[in-house]
Design a protein that fits this description.
- By secondary structure, this protein is an alpha/beta fold.
- The protein has two domains: 146 residues, Rossmann fold (3-Layer(aba) Sandwich), CATH 3.40.50.720; 160 residues, L-2-Hydroxyisocaproate Dehydrogenase, Chain A, domain 2, CATH 3.90.110.
- 46% of the residues lie in helices and 16% in strands.
- The protein has eleven helices and eleven strands.
- It has a six-stranded parallel sheet with strand order 3-2-1-4-5-6, sandwiched between helices.
- Helix 6 links the parallel strand 5 and strand 6.
- The longest helix is centred in the C-terminal third of the chain and has 27 residues.
- The radius of gyration is 19 Å and the shape is globular.
- The chain binds 1,4-dihydronicotinamide adenine dinucleotide.
- 1,4-dihydronicotinamide adenine dinucleotide binds next to helix 5.
- This is Malate dehydrogenase.
Length: 340
């Protein structure tokens, strides 16, 4: 409860004034999954959400019936796994979250998920582009470095691509970073803010410790921290021993990102989240998408910040990131070209 209060306490008080004039429909695709269920729960507790639309290939009406008994104002509806069910779920949505797809098992990289998740995300993106072309699309399904370009290609092919409305959710890397750095320094993670740029897998995850409150972390301690942030997901995959990857921490991160977008859409200024977007920062090096700090606004991505001042160590991390990222992005683009 403390956590929910921490996340939504302030928002709740403010939302009494906003909810009267703004109603926000949020759709979750893959709502019955490990991430989908707790994510939907957190969205049901968010007073900025007026309608919660849940879709999955199984069990979405059940999850919706369960959540609908919670005594918050929003209306929850689960949709049948049919094309018309999906269309109805998406129509009128302001935000569409996509945690649909298979998670990792021990020993797998996020890229190993490509073959299954690429077509799932492509098909959901097609439906979203048709039913709600102006919605903000938040891609959680991995590999994010490739699934975001897949969405972009689908939207482009339908002539409705708006780069400001497509986001790869990298919030969990930021959440983990502040937690891990607080464990080293014995601080409150709520006071720690680590910018993470690049992509969302392995070496494409680039935490900028020099810009944090603790630029003094160096040597083996820095190596270990960076490695833990880059491969933090593996700790969960290993501990769950074949039963999946991060779901609860991811649900929290996804709900935080959705909340930030809703705040920005409802007029709050200065809302900044690192996220993986169509970005001008490294396009000259052939990298079309890149995660950096992005100020959110009513139009989606309002302002994309450059990475800022980084040190030699981080330059090395960034170089390794860009090489991998370019390949991951191209893989997504090629997939849609070959499998439209
Ligand atoms: P899960 O297997 O528990 O749930 C996935 C859900 O998607 C299932 O309920 C399944 O029925 C549904 N689904 C499958 N195909 C669908 C379709 N065509 N339409 C609608 N729903 C469909 O998996 P989990 O743990 O929830 O993970 C979901 C995805 O999120 C994975 O790809 C995982 O790698 C990714 N993930 C992303 C993170 C990030 O930081 N961006 C962090 C953790 C996981």
């Amino acid at each position: 409860m403390f956590f929910v209060r921490q996340m939504f306490g302030q928002a709740q008080r403010r939302a009494f004034s906003v909810s009267a004039r703004q109603s926000s429909k949020v759709a979750v695709l893959g709502a019955a999954g490990g991430i989908g269920q707790p994510l939907s729960l957190l969205l049901k507790l968010n007073p900025r959400v007026s309608q919660l639309a849940l879709y999955d290939i199984r069990l979405a009406p059940g999850v919706a019936a369960d959540l609908s008994h919670i005594n918050t104002k929003s209306v929850v509806k689960g949709y049948d796994p049919t094309p018309s069910g999906l269309r109805e779920c998406l129509t009128g949505s302001e935000i569409i979250l996509i945690p649909a797809g298979v998670p990792r098992k021990p020993g797998m990289t996020r890229d190993d998920l490509f073959n299954t998740n690429a077509s799932i995300v492509r098909d959901l993106a097609k439906a979203a582009a048709d039913a709600a072309p102006d919605a903000n699309v938040l891609v959680i399904a991995n590999p994010v470095n490739s699934t975001v370009p897949i969405c972009a290609e689908v939207y482009k092919s339908k002539g409705v691509y708006n780069p400001k409305r497509l986001f790869g959710v990298t919030t969990l890397d930021v959440v983990r970073s502040s937690r891990f750095i607080s464990e080293i320094k014995g601080t409150d993670p709520a006071d720690e803010n680590v910018t993470v740029v690049g992509g969302h897998s392995g070496v494409t995850i680039v935490p900028l410790i020099s810009q944090s409150r603790h630029p003094d972390i160096s040597g083996a301690q820095l190596d270990a921290l960076v490695n833990r942030i880059q491969f933090g997901g593996d700790e969960v995959v290993k501990a769950k021993d074949g039963a999946g990857s991060a779901t609860l921490s991811m649900a929290m991160a996804g709900a935080r990102f959705a909340e930030s977008l809703l705040k920005a859409a409802q007029g709050e200024k200065g809302v900044i989240e690192p996220t993986f977007v169509d970005s001008p920062l490294y396009k000259d090096q052939g990298v079309e998408f890149f995660a950096s700090r992005v100020e959110l606004g009513p139009e989606g991505a309002h302002n994309i910040y450059p990475v800022g001042k980084i040190n030699k160590y981080e330059e090395g991390l960034l170089e390794a990131c860009l090489g991998d990222l370019k390949k991951n992005i191209q893989k997504g683009i090629d997939f849609v070209k070959a499998n439209p």
